[in-house]
Specification:
alpha+beta; two-stranded antiparallel sheet; about 60% helix
Length: about 90
């Protein structure tokens, strides 16, 4: 019996995790090269009694990279959780 047949939870399959991460990396590369570096989002400065920061321009191309990175983190955490649950169920 192979590992994929043994696993009841599809999130525990390492091959599926690698494919999901590869798709997310491909989408990240596409978004990076599609959105030009000239596209910026201006963040206004703030001055308060406790802290202050100066206004600056943030490149828009970092927003999809951040979101895709959060999805990649979620994929890895779900895979690790499923593998630990599967190992615990085998030990019990």
């Amino acid at each position: 019996m192979s590992e994929s047949e043994r696993s009841l939870n599809p999130a525990a399959d390492k091959r599926r995790m690698v494919i999901a991460l590869a798709v997310l990396a491909g989408l990240g590369a596409l978004s990076w090269f599609t959105i030009g570096g000239a596209a910026v989002f201006h963040v206004e400065g703030y001055s308060g009694s406790l802290f202050s920061y100066a206004g600056r321009d943030v490149e828009v191309r970092w927003f999809p990279i951040l979101i895709l990175g959060l999805f990649a983190f979620r994929v890895v955490m779900a895979n690790m959780r499923a593998r630990l649950q599967e190992r615990d169920s085998r030990e019990s």
